[in-house]
Amino acid sequence: MTELKNDTYLRALLRQPVDYTPVWMMRQAGRYLPEYKETRAQAGDFMSLCRNTELATEVTIQPLRRFDLDAAILFSDILTIPDAMGLGLYFETGEGPKFERPITCKADVEKIGLPDPEGELKYVMDAVRSIRKELNGKVPLIGFSGSPWTLATYMIEGGSSKAFTKIKKMMFAEPQTLHLLLDKLADSVIEYLNAQIAAGAQSVMVFDTWGGVLSPRDYKDFSLQYMAKIVDGLTRENEGRKVPVTLFTKNGGMWLESIAATGCDGVGLDWTIDIENAAARVGDKVALQGNMDPSMLYAPKERIEQEVAKILSGYGDKGTGHVFNLGHGIHPDVNPEHAGHFIEAVHRLSKPYHK
């Protein structure tokens, strides 16, 4: 494989010395870029874009042509695994993802098998291989998956939800059925992420988008223990270097110590927690990723810069262990110029913290 020219992101996650704070953005390949909209129109629909190796590669690379980002993230969707399990994923305009055949009972769970990463999910691995080739060592490639709990919410609710009543009903009335599903999903995520690593992903991330809707006890039982199982099952070294793993639970700030104790390398923070507080709580156990409010990119450039300075100052002069990011995905109506200014400001303003 081609030698990596910029490994700042990987070194920061492994808490090794870096010259500046690396930065990338969740959903950096997406609807805020006019070139993305053109490519998506060419593909026809979202999943066709994900399944087209050439176009998935193109949209992954697009933000790197515009901005001096320190990592690329695979263009895909968190629901690829449930889709490959035969639940019939489709997208309703303006309503997000839906499943034709949601999970309703134990028999449904028993029926589903683990998808083959080089079979039903080969299109994802083909995209990883193609993107790595196209990147040509410029920056590392991040692979990812949804967490078992988050995947299960979509599979049981049949799509997005506000109250999560169906999955919580199963959680409290038939916990053994839900544990059976979560265990299958954890095994599937391990195979899926290890296949991404074998195909060329140099770091992986688990998105636990809906872990924050759980009580502390239920979070540990139904979300965190399955992410810990994934961390234990992952390939942690490939191509002669370590493969860092980051866990991100949205609204999970109260559980930072428990997340850090899983053995992951990095913990993602949303914007609802102060980074100084987070850093004090986890010490030098893990790197932190985050955590500017994505809506800050609507602000004037001076205000964006002030916020970048505040977050850098909050993390302090540890010299490493911080990957700057938004606290969640970039909004589709953000001005790309503001995103560019944000990235430049992180690089410029972080250098004094790394002397």
Automatic annotation (TrEMBL):
Residues 22-31, 142-158 form the Uroporphyrinogen decarboxylase (URO-D) domain. Catalyzes the decarboxylation of four acetate groups of uroporphyrinogen-III to yield coproporphyrinogen-III. It comes from Thalassotalea eurytherma. This is Uroporphyrinogen decarboxylase. The keyword Glycoprotein does not apply. Its EC number is 4.1.1.37. Homodimer. Substrate binds at R27, Q28, A29, G30, R31, D77, Y154, T209, H328. The record marks D77 as: Transition state stabilizer.
